[in-house]
């Protein structure tokens, strides 16, 4: 309550004379919280970020917001900030995520048309961000960081969540698999990477409310300079919504063709680009399983448990497709015997 009172006091100081009400807007997997401020005089609502400075640093968020905005992406405007207290006053991109918009579609053909349109917008924004890329501006998505993410899997998913102790041979196999995955990931061309470019972090904007072009982009503070396929994996192999392979391949090909025309550093052959995409997905899904397990066991957030089967299914399918990942597939079968298939959303 003390923190909320600090927030109210700060907001009153930057909005003198304005009467407002605060209500929770959203929370994420970090220590940040978001509130929506609505005003008695009918002024446009605002969003307030509460990032406790001892746990969260808002400066990376501000830095990435500036980069992405300059690239032409639609991110929240910063109306006021207090770095010492960890408060930001932002323009409001609304409360409808891509995920909510896509899951409320009833008619299947119309839903697919809507999805194509929304994802085309998302790819356009992503390409704009990637075209603005340059080295030395964002942290490197280097071997150390990629490997640290992979190590979340044995620590939190295998040992803590599944309660399984690996044999020496299994540990050696897993380390070998990690090295193969990293070799493909690190050979990719590099661009700016949002790092969580998925349906929960893309906002559906209402043109009638003057909020601008889709998508609104949030939760970008962990952006890095890394593999060009990473954000495409986040977008199309989304932990929260499933698309069939034909849909994904169609949009991937469209992206690849457009990226080449824009001069983005994609592979000359689509088959090579697709392999990069698949192996980048393996790294991300291994990481995400570890993160979801950690959120549950360490942070008491059980909402992500329901999303684990889809992530595991993505991982298992990739391991079946690529022979070099066969030993990893055997380990997955021991950890979680394959019993059910995850159905498509549409």
TrEMBL record:
<keyword id="KW-0067">ATP-binding</keyword>
<dbReference type="Pfam" id="PF01636">
    <property type="entry name" value="APH"/>
</dbReference>
<dbReference type="InterPro" id="IPR002575">
    <property type="entry name" value="Aminoglycoside_PTrfase"/>
</dbReference>
<dbReference type="GO" id="GO:0016740">
    <property type="term" value="F:transferase activity"/>
</dbReference>
<feature type="domain" description="Aminoglycoside phosphotransferase">
    <location>
        <begin position="22"/>
        <end position="255"/>
    </location>
</feature>
<protein>
    <submittedName>
        <fullName>Aminoglycoside phosphotransferase</fullName>
    </submittedName>
</protein>
<keyword id="KW-0547">Nucleotide-binding</keyword>
<dbReference type="InterPro" id="IPR011009">
    <property type="entry name" value="Kinase-like_dom_sf"/>
</dbReference>
<keyword id="KW-0808">Transferase</keyword>
<dbReference type="GO" id="GO:0005524">
    <property type="term" value="F:ATP binding"/>
</dbReference>
